[in-house]
Amino acid sequence: MPKAGGLPTDYKLQEQDIFLLDYSVVLHGYRSDFTNAYAVGEPTSDQQKVFDICHACLKAGAAYLKAGISASSVYETVTQPMLDAGYPALGHHAGHGIGLGHPESPILVPESTDTLLAGDVVTLEPGMYIEGIGGVRLEHNYLITDSGFEQLSHHEISLN
Q1: Looking at CB atoms within 10 Å, which of 31, 52, 88, 93 has the fewest?
Q2: pLDDT band for position 3 (50/70/90)?
């Protein structure tokens, strides 16, 4: 099973491997959290398909964000494109709050009782990890507003 995270090894990336870059910037004590998946060389059609599904999950979740919705319903919205494509739901949260800590409430999981509030800063980070294809996880940061959200991160989401 593809891994996301762990200790360094001597493994050298090879053509058609996918690697995740997950990083945080801290400014005046406030945190951010970004992730993208990158292919070494040209991605296979299966890798591109998994990437496209994850990207659809990210976009679906963002379109749903606004104050007053439940964290569990955000999880359901983020994972729906995976389920529609015949894949299982996430094996981890669909995102989390960030601020002075990392992670913070709300945690976007099915069992959460949290509600998103105007002023919350959250990440969405759908991920799929498939044996023989690789792991893809994408992440942006959002400020929750009464009418929706303001996207705070603007890095390119692309496999290349």
Answers
A1: 88
A2: low
